[in-house]
Amino acid sequence: MLGYSRRSEKHPHLSASATDRDKIKRIFRFLQELHHVKSPPVVDLALYEWKLSYDAVPRYASVQRGDAGSGFIIKVARPNESQCPRPSVAIEKWLKADWEQFGVEPEFYQRRPERRDGEPAAASRWRPGGW
Hints:
Blueprint: H1 18-38, E1 63-65, E2 74-76, H2 89-92, H3 123-126
Antiparallel strand pairs: 1-2
């Protein structure tokens, strides 16, 4: 036992008697049993909403599989961050700046971006002699 009856160095006026400690133990035991009643442990794999067999675990460099002597079953490391693939040119013109930032929802222009001369970017293609 950790000596709960001793007075706390931070709070010298607080102490717990044996009766108080017993009451606290009973309260925590009650809460533990209540948790088991409200959410019983699943003992049948068929009852789980989602499952992944050990053989189906992906074989990546960031995933280590343990064995009997390793002390773990699976260890997963954070994979190296890679660059976001570039969208096609047609879509990229509609995207506002910072679309490639992780965690940022990409924003789009409501109208097509205009060229420097004020015409829509694709307008010259549709004019006679534009192609």
